[in-house]
Write a structure and sequence with these properties.
Layout (H helix, E strand, L loop, with lengths): L2 H10 L3 E9 L1 E3 L3 E6 L6 E8 L6 E5 L2 E4 L5 E4 L2 E6 L2 E4 L2 H10 L4 E7 L6 E3 L8 H10 L1 E3 L9 E7 L3 E5 L2 E7 L4 E8 L6 E6 L5 H8 L5 E3 H9 L12 E4 L3 E2 L9 H14 L13 E6 L3 H15 L1
Parallel strand pairs: 5-10, 9-11, 16-21, 18-19
Antiparallel strand pairs: 1-13, 2-12, 3-4, 4-10, 5-6, 7-8, 8-9, 14-15, 15-21, 16-17, 19-20
The structure holds zinc ion.
Zinc ion (ZN) binds next to helix 2 and helix 6.
Length: about 325
């Protein structure tokens, strides 16, 4: 069974109902463009985000090919979320997609390019390791109501969870409960890194300002002792103390101060929103309206969630 098939099952199952959010679909008011270094490839990449019609959703435009920001094209890759279609890949999409989902940019074209005119792969810039750069850029130009090509506004749907769902792998899990509003509770545990240890973060509510103030500025983190292994695996070629917070098992944080005492846990929430945004279709919300409780979740669990929905409800 393909991931696309599983998603369609999720979409048509009784587990979720696609209902109106009471809002209209939006897009960005005008284009924004940012250039920066990518974390894993180290390349310099330019991203231009442009307004799009309602119903078109979010999609990347790479080498004049369109790759929808959808679970249909998501690939499991180490340490980042990748979209892949027809041999073209766009890596590390999660922070950008998290910012677009959380701020309500439901429809947009994301042009992305690097200096390698022949390459088949491109990567979204990392900036400071958080979603701040994107949120600030979006706030600068603002949003507008998106209309379809006939000039009509379109209501924005969201997946509302009807029944509890629970998936797990070893000691990590994702549980989601029906809830009239989005709540996210996230736990991480690094017993071998005392400066991080066990952390839990729980969102009180989830409006745009909560994300901008409490989540967007939390940065990617990594364990110092794992950096060499990642470099040997061809990852984090663009990594530096400017685009991640680095923690040593014995010496604690190497580049303080943290922006939040529980910044690593908040960053996981940022990533989760980016990954769940891939459930969006045709300008809808991707993030399920539910109380989501996760502990040590990883990207593969989201896939498992998708399959879980298929197995149980068809
Ligand atoms: Zn991240």
């Amino acid at each position: 069974m393909s991931l696309a098939g599983a998603f369609n099952a999720f979409k048509s199952s009784t587990l979720v109902s696609w209902k109106s959010t009471g809002k209209f679909q939006q897009t960005i008011a005008s284009c924004i463009q940012r250039t920066g270094k990518a974390l894993h490839s180290g390349e310099v990449t330019t991203v231009k985000i442009c307004p799009e019609f309602a119903g078109e959703g979010r999609y990347f435009d790479f080498r004049s090919s369109f790759i929808r920001a959808s679970i249909d094209f998501a690939e499991e890759t180490p340490l980042c979320t990748t979209l892949c279609k027809d041999g073209l890949t766009v890596r590390t999409v999660e922070h950008l997609l998290s910012a677009l989902e959380a701020t309500g940019v439901d429809n947009c074209r994301i042009e992305i390019s690097n200096s390698d005119c022949e390459g088949r792969s491109v990567e979204v810039p990392i900036f400071d390791g958080s979603a701040n750069e994107w949120v600030e850029a979006i706030e600068q130009v603002g949003l507008k109501m998106a209309t379809d090509c006939s000039g009509n506004s379109c209501e924005k749907l969201a997946p509302f969870l009807n029944e509890p769902v629970h998936v797990w792998k070893n000691d990590s899990f994702i549980t989601a409960f029906p809830s009239p509003k989005i709540h996210i509770t996230y736990g991480i545990n690094f017993p071998q890194v005392p400066a991080i240890g066990c952390q839990w973060f729980s969102s009180a509510s989830f409006d745009d300002s909560f994300y901008a103030k409490q989540i967007a500025s939390s940065r990617t983190f990594c364990i110092y002792e794992e950096v060499e292994r990642m470099i040997n695996a061809g990852l984090i070629k663009g990594g530096s103390l400017d685009n991640a917070i680095v923690c040593s098992t014995s010496r604690g944080w190497l580049n303080p101060p943290l922006r939040f005492q529980d910044e690593p846990c908040r960053h996981k929430v940022l990533d989760l929103i980016g990954d769940l945004s891939l459930f969006a279709r045709c300008g809808s919300q991707g993030l399920p309206v539910a109380h989501i409780v996760t502990y040590k979740a990883c990207a593969s669990l989201y896939r498992k969630l998708c399959f879980f929905c298929f197995i149980l409800f068809l």
